[in-house]
Amino acid sequence: MEISGSALIGQRSAQHDEHNVMGSSAFRAVNPVTGAPLEPAFMRTSAQDVALACELAAKAFDTYRETPLEQRAAFLERIAACVLNLGDTLVERCMAETGLPRARIEGERARTIGQLKMFADVVRRGEFLGLRIDPAQPQRTPAPRVDLRLRHIGLGPVAVFGASNFPLAFSVAGGDTAAALAAGCPVVAKAHPAHPGTSELVGRAIQQAVHDCALPDGTFSLVFDDSIGAGVALVENPHIKAVGFTGSRTGGVALMQLAARRSEPIPVYAEMSSINPVLLLPHALAARAEAIGQAFAAALTLGTGQFCTNPGLVLAIDGPDLQRFVDSAAAALGTQPATPMLTAGIHGAYLRGIERLRTQPGVEQAGMGADSSGACAHAGRAALFVTRAEVFAQQAALHEEVFGPASLVVRCPDAQTLHAIVERLEGQLTIALHLDDADHALARTLLPTLERRAGRVLVNGFGTGVEVGHAMVHGGPFPATSDGRSTSVGSLAITRFLRPVSYQDLPDALLPETLRAGNPAGLPRSVDGAPA
Ligand code: NAP
């Protein structure tokens, strides 16, 4: 399949203006390994085309949201098949645009396909509709009871911003798109400008699936921009009813503010910034400081640290065991070659971040990745820093995410100080505990705080590697996300794009089929609060 460089507005491609391709209306992806621009040029989607995509989505909404569940599930599976059918064309373009190795891209493609199939199952089961019936009680005294029936419907067209660090699984056909389409919401996606070719290929796969499943034109559109124009126009468009975003805190907060300023404010589900503390409890540290240090170094450098769940902070009680951990982690990091980061911008932000840590009074550098600076222009070299609890408590800058393979170890004088530090942390996606049986008493006292601070608490591992399933939460209090009631990974994500509607005393013939007498759709429902 050829990449055209044009936006996908429903079933058609936006006009590709050859004159503007040479001018300021076009941009190109850059290979982060070679620094070379990649063909073709991508047209920045015009304000008119963004508006048209949103209008088409609004027109599609009523038809799309009432598609039989089987048809909607088949559509999600068809998207998965069409993405897979792109074969090596997709894998190679994605490798060229991201610098990520083939195995990672193929793994991410499998995850993306798995997510779509999981949502197809969720749709078929129909539990997400949350069907509830309180039948009329005309004889009730002192007043008769009305007939009330509840179901959930999609919020409306959703704007999805592709993430730079997951070009497939958190991008055009990623978790937010799959969840929104499963919920019955048309999607207008904004491609991340770091991987526009990958985005167009995947967008065309979704466009094909829309066609194959005979769904309305506006069920899906894809727009491009390497600046904020198209994204702002999307969020401000009155047809858009929710936003899904993964990226920087600055970007996420800007979108939250835009959405809140609309005459009709809308929810923004932004996943932004997390340093994913790792707490090393004393008995675990005494028993296996070296092994934990090695595992930590591997987790920190995975994917050049470009994961939202990267372990950016380690907290432990000071002493020889913690020093063994630091020495082991530093030694392991010293053998890790620097690997390409996704974009020049992310690399630049990483260099500024580690410089901020390096020059902070009271912070020492404990380790660095191997010097392979000649390897490629945007190679990210791992860095490990150490500080004391009182310095960390006083320096807000030390609490900020440094996106990449950098981490800070905080030496705490005692368990109370460690606990107090966790209590004052900002919201996190994950908090990991390394513990042995003898650490359970301390862990038990920490858990209520950890639950308040993070979306996921895990033991003897690291937050990297986010399982896609039914019990996963990839969310957390601000600034990990804009709305800690939600998750961007796993089947629960469908709920972020739904809202309940109650039907009072509607004649059976006017009710949605799912709520009619006799349960003709055969879906799970509750009657008077109990499973029917
Ligand atoms: P980003 O700058 O937040 O951009 C993400 C997407 O949002 C892009 O499509 C961008 O558009 C758009 N955007 C950003 N600000 C916007 C605004 N004010 N209005 C409208 N659209 C806006 O993130 P990034 O490019 O992926 O990486 C930059 C930094 O984000 C990284 O260095 C890292 O710190 C952080 N990051 C964090 C995570 C995480 O999971 N925690 C993941 C990825 C990145 P344009 O690019 O076209 O302007």
UniProtKB/TrEMBL annotation:
Alphabetized UniProt keyword annotations: Oxidoreductase
Alphabetical list of Pfam families matching this protein: Aldedh
Enzyme Commission code(s) on record: 1.2.1.26
Top-level taxonomic group: Bacteria
Matching InterPro entries: Ald_DH/histidinol_DH, Ald_DH_C, Ald_DH_N, Aldehyde_DH_dom, Aldehyde_DH_Superfamily, ALDH_KGSADH
Gene Ontology molecular functions: 2,5-dioxovalerate dehydrogenase (NADP+) activity
Keyword DNA-binding: no
SUPFAM superfamilies the record matches: ALDH-like
Domain Aldehyde dehydrogenase positions: 26-469
Name this protein carries in UniProt: Alpha-ketoglutaric semialdehyde dehydrogenase 3
Gene name of the encoded protein: LhpG_1
